[in-house]
């Protein structure tokens, strides 16, 4: 009986841990020579307005061009670009982009980003990263 209660208690604790995990935006540390971290998020803030956010942290000595695109999922599973923005880090090691865009239809949306890294004006690498999907 004690063993049965112990096993039941362990299962309950494990289930509680997995169910109680909060949904967090992921910050990813890519294996990169120029990019330290990347982050992409999408939030619905009301009335069809999507808040699109991205952040890139560069290692010292590198510069980058960041492209952020709001995408909508098609019925066949592919993604269509809805809006896009760009920023370039000529002197800063952190690029942050935060734009709002009002969508016309409900569906699944995400933010897709691509960062192009440079060292001394020469292209070094390209790293894509994507937010989680948001259903509106």
Task: Characterize the structure shown.
It is a single chain. With 136 residues, this protein is mostly beta strands. It has a single domain, classed as Immunoglobulin-like (Sandwich), CATH 2.60.40.1290. The protein has one helix and nine strands, in the order αβββββββββ. The strands form two sheets. Strands 4, 5, 7, 8 and 9 form a five-stranded antiparallel β-sheet that branches. The radius of gyration is 20 Å and the shape is elongated.
Record the SSE blueprint.
Elements (H helix, E strand, L loop, with lengths): L1 H18 L7 E2 L6 E12 L2 E10 L4 E11 L5 E10 L5 E9 L5 E12 L2 E9 L3 E2 L1
Antiparallel strand pairs: 1-2, 2-3, 3-6, 4-5, 4-7, 7-8, 7-9
């Amino acid at each position: 009986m004690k063993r049965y209660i112990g096993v039941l208690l362990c299962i309950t604790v494990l289930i509680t841990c997995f169910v109680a995990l909060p949904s967090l935006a992921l910050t990813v540390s890519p294996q990169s020579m120029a990019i330290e971290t990347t982050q992409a998020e999408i939030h619905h803030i009301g009335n069809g307005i999507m808040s699109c956010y991205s952040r890139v942290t560069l290692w010292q000595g590198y510069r980058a061009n960041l492209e952020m695109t709001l995408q909508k999922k098609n019925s066949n599973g592919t993604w269509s670009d809805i809006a896009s923005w760009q920023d370039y880090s000529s002197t800063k090691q952190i690029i942050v982009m935060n734009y709002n865009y009002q969508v016309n239809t409900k569906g699944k949306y995400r933010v897709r980003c691509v960062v192009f890294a440079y060292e001394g004006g020469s292209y070094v690498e390209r790293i894509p990263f994507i937010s989680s999907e948001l259903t509106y």
